[in-house]
Amino acid sequence: MNILWLQSGGCGGCSMSLLCADTTDFPALLKAGGIELLWHPSLSLASGAELVALLEACRDGRQPLDVLCVEGALLRGPQGSGRFHVLAGTGRPMVDWVRELAQVATHVVAVGSCAAWGGLSATGTNPTEACGLQYEDDRLGGLLGGAFVARGGLPAVNVAGCPTHPGWVLDTLMALAAGLLTRADLDPLNRPRFYADQLVHHGCTRNEYYEFKASAEKPSDLGCMMEHLGCKGTQAHADCNTRLWNGEGSCTRGGYACISCTEPGFQDPGHPFHRTPKLAGIPIGLPTDMPKAWFVALASLSKSATPRRVKSNATADHLVVAPAVRKTRLK
User: Fold this and answer.
1) What is the pLDDT of residue 205?
2) Eight-state DSSP code of residue 63
3) Do residue 27 and residue 129 come from a single domain?
4) Omega into 78 within 30° of 0, i.e. cis?
5) What's the CA angle centered on 165, arms 178 and 43, to 5 degrees?
6) Looking at the structure, do residues 170 and 225 belong to the same domain, yes or no?
7) Rounded to whole angstroms, how far apart are CA atoms 310 and 323?
8) Within the chain, which residues score under 70 in pLDDT?
9) pLDDT score of 331
């Protein structure tokens, strides 16, 4: 399976993350999966005329193109001309190249939230007219249009995240190479279900504090960060706490609130990322499938039953009270 990887409007963070894939031999991993990287801006030596010749060969059908990967938002400005991002050496806007290559590729993959929805590149007033391949935030459309379907029968596959986990990217490419990714394997926002059917909340090491609604009050505290510190782990679709980053980490395990970077519009929450907006003392953003009345009742009951150990540790940066030691023959 041949892959062409282009970078548009973004920081290159998804490529940086990909280079942290859990393998000592990245090229061998791709080869073992039957994947050939035709070109990648960070991993390939070809540039200039060589790259232009490759792009033209792919566009004209002389070089088969199985997967077009796009990293970064598509910059349509100014005034729809695409001239904010001209591909060096071609004199043509990147958006024109992406449109043409998407028409001949068997599959099209948006790598990262910028390529999926517009992401950080589309923040605020969006002066560059940035958008995703097939979405503009959570609205169908984007550069390719809501009706776009690649030659392989799939819409643009959105491997969203800021940045993406290297495992999400590699598993998606491996599944495409093996012919194992179908429409049924994509969620309603065309994200691969193997990671998007999970929540960041799953596997979070702070879940005991969440259950008792024992909340952190400052960044160094051990407690749950949902109530005060802006954590959206109960709403964010990703497996960050069960598929750890670099084998051992995640945002919440590092003491940082989940900002829901796999979701459309995460870049403009309407409030500081480290603050939880509330209405009458109740967080506005609740778990995705929990009615507000249930949450209020559960929180009230949980707080009244919070063990002293959990309550004390929640607002400390280390274990103040250790779990009680009982008889070893537990019943």
Assistant:
1) 95
2) S
3) yes
4) yes
5) 75
6) no
7) 9
8) 328, 330-331
9) 62
